[in-house]
Fold this sequence. Notes:
mainly alpha, 82% helix, 0% strand
Amino acid sequence: MIKQFFEAITAVLQAFPLLFSRRLRLFVFAPIVANTVLMGLIVFVAFGYIDSTADYLMGFLPDWFSFLHWLFYLIFAAIMLLLMFYSFSIGVNIIAAPFMALLAEKTEEITTGKLFDEAMTLRGFIKIIGRSIKREIQKLIYFLPRFLGLLLLSFVPVVNLVSSLLLLLFSAWMLALQYMDYAFDNNQLSFRSMRQMLKRKLLLCWSFGFIVMIGMTIPLLNLIIMPLAVVASTLLWNRVFNT
């Protein structure tokens, strides 16, 4: 199990030099622009609404919960941040998905020598766009009911203490699914098959997801975390899953 944790860290560290290599720069630019817009929107909305929203939600609780005000405030604040993060990231991921799919392809070509069928033509790019949007919709269908279920549990007293941890674990799992999916999709593995394979390496996925999650909170690093995660997840595909 410890090996899976170090595999995730190693992949991220080894992704840095690849990310800035001459052959990948073009495919890195679009995800960085999308991620910059995403982080700017999250910060703008968070600072503008999160305080008032958390106070408003606290008004629905009985007075005898007042001694736990700080705890529920943190819980509501975390929920709001997750809602804003997922709302914006869903749109950004759909827009950036074709570019990240290409980035995963080129990373695999550089590291393994494998060549993919799609030529770098308008028709080939349109094909990648259609395939990428289909996968993003599949991820959205998988994500929404599970996230909403955990969100509802967050409003149940006492249970919400556990649901907050589950939300964090689920968020890490979804980040792993999100970024590892490009390499799996490029190699024609279905979304269901990918989930089954990733579940066998659950600690690896959680470790990778939490690394990406932490990277999103670090200034400057959060600007490149999307393409970095794509390159790192492709390395994990090569070493762990493509055997």
